[in-house]
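note to self: dont lose this again. the chain is below, predicted strucutre after it. 155 aa total, dont forget to put it in the shared folder this time
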Amino acid sequence: LTIRHELGMNHLARLLILAQLASNRGPGTRLDARIQAVIDYLNLHLSEPLSVGELADAAHISESHLAHLFREQVGVPPKRFIEMRKMQRAMDLLISTNRPIGQIANDVGFDNAFHFSARFRRCAGCSPRKLRQNPTRRSECYAHLIHASGLQEQK
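---
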């Protein structure tokens, strides 16, 4: 596959996840500004180990309030969303770069490549190595990620 095709598939997969998030909230609704701030913060700090407390601080609300508001607005708990975003980023890096898996693990906030690979396999339905060897599985892995996150269950 060409890099252009891969980038197109990556963009399509992201749009599918965003559409799923939007459908969970209903038409015409916007994310609370505090939740959007949390998502923005998360996207800027994917390479770091993130806690719900740190995200709550970024939104200037308590952890319990963040957990409730986040689940209400996004459809999944913050910890699950953090993991989903990290795995999305890892998929992107596995397909678009030749970086070693251990480096990609560090890039998405994991200190241990073995732990990263186990979490990736659980979330994406295949190992990082298998995805890299067969990038056409990307759609299948994104679908598995959505299923594992619980996003499809929220209506």
